[in-house]
Design a protein that fits this description.
The chain has 233 residues and is α/β, with parallel strands linked by helices. The chain folds into 2 domains: 38 residues, no CATH class; 190 residues, Rossmann fold (3-Layer(aba) Sandwich). The protein has 8 helices and 7 strands, in the order ααββααβααβαββαβ. Helix 4 crosses helix 6. The chain is globular. 37% of the residues are buried. About 2% of the residues have low confidence.
């Protein structure tokens, strides 16, 4: 009975608030089939650490001398076109209904590129940024991904203590890393010995994910791998 009620509620919501494609505006889905076919998928080979596509599966020039805490970063998409628009709609325009679709796309990638993980964690927002936006887009995606994978989602152990400048406003990789250095901390010891999958929407230099990983490993995490919707080239 409950699935039927849920289905009827979904139909009613679709009638009142019809979905429209963020790419082309066509009514029906948030990313229509035609726009899905235009998504910029990342295909191997990629850098083993940052996950950016390159001609060979070896460390890229940016990662060769990067003494990172994060074990690796992976993503299904390049941050452009329709996926860029979708992330902007979720992140800045309150289209939270996109989170299940985002998680489904990540899950499809996860199933064929299995990442070891005992716990899923979203990259947290500082409380000031959370008040301004009203929600954490990475948390929305993480919760939906947890439902699909069956992996527990921890929303309390990792916190952001510093209200930093948005990474998009920084001018260099070095500035990005300095901007978030020491910005995160872990509470409790629930993550000792655990393999962590860290969820975020976009990464460019990996600085934010690495700062999170440093705190997680200081708290005893065995490994930390980033899984993000898109990588900015």
């Amino acid at each position: 009975m409950l699935p039927q009620v849920t289905k009827l509620k979904r139909i009613a919501l679709d009638l009142l608030f019809p979905q429209w494609c963020v790419g082309c505006g066509r009514e029906g889905e948030y990313i229509c089939q035609q726009c899905r076919e235009s998504l910029s998928f990342i295909s191997p080979p990629v850098c083993p650490k940052c996950g950016k596509p390159q001609s060979e599966a070896r460390l890229c020039s940016a990662c060769v001398n990067w003494d990172s805490a994060i074990n690796s970063i992976r993503s299904p998409f390049i941050f452009d076109g329709v996926i860029r628009q979708a992330i902007h709609e979720l992140k800045y325009r309150n289209l939270r209904a996109l989170a299940p679709l985002m998680a489904q796309l990540l899950y499809e990638y996860f199933r064929t590129n299995s990442l070891p993980g005992d716990v899923i964690l979203p990259v947290p927002l500082h409380k000031k940024r959370l008040r301004e936006r009203g929600y954490n887009q990475s948390l929305l995606i993480a919760r939906e991904l947890g439902k699909l994978t069956g992996i527990p989602v921890d929303v309390h152990s990792l916190v952001k203590n510093s209200h930093t400048t948005p990474q998009a406003r920084t001018a260099s990789v070095e500035e990005r890393r300095e901007n978030v250095a020491g910005a995160f901390s872990c509470t409790g010891d629930n993550l000792k010995g655990k393999s962590i999958i860290l969820i975020d929407d976009v990464t460019t230099s990996g600085a934010t994910l690495d700062a999170c990983a440093a705190s997680l490993k200081a708290a005893g995490a065995a490994s930390v791998r980033g899984l993000v919707m898109a990588i900015e080239p």
